[in-house]
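Sample pair:
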Amino acid sequence: MFKNAIVRIPCENMVNGITESKLGIPDHKQAVEQHEKYIEALIKCGVNVTILPPDNNFPDSTFVEDTALLTPHCAIISNSGAESRKGEVEEIKETIRKFYENIEYIRNPGTIEPGDIMMVGTHFYIGLSKRTNMNGAEQMISILKRYGMTGSVVTLENVLHLKTGLSYLEKNNLVSAGEFVSKPEFQKFNLLKVDDDESYAANCIWVNEIVFVADGFSKIRKQIEDAGYETIALDMSEFRKLDGGLSCLSLRF
């Protein structure tokens, strides 16, 4: 169960964020409104939310997930593979120190973004992507082992991040899309398969027995509900324009 979450309000400079989506420029006002609904949903799930102010120095800074991996035993500060995002970790470390005594770091030449990391119990799947390299993954696995956890590497072919196409919903249920449906390492899970026309909705999050799903994707939402979960649908249109998903908007621990 999650007790806490850290979020950051979208900044006006988000219009200059990194994207490959070709969906247009995000509307800042609308993004802030969508972000407020996201915070409301977290609070509904019984989570204490720390809300950080917007930071115009970093257009993608609302995607706080990529700054750190927060485990039950330690916080691991990431090292982004995107040059424009590297400074984001400096802006959030002081907040993380309020919650964690044990803080570790991924160092150059290793790069890693936790959008590439999926937690299943005490095991962490780490996707190798444009933002996460093998050195970063090996550093992460070494740190996890020191704290009694484990990790393994997953190769990516077509997606930006591992969690672009995967979401673990606890109880052995795994939402999966595209290349992940057939990967051998995930066949032990009960796969909730996402149709190609709803692939964006593969990025959803479990928060204390409730699952947040991107609004407008009825087929996978019904699958999740049929699996026994209550859902909350949230409009993610402006964050999608920056290749962002539901998991990207918070650090949950």
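Residues 127 and 154 are 5 Å apart (CA to CA).
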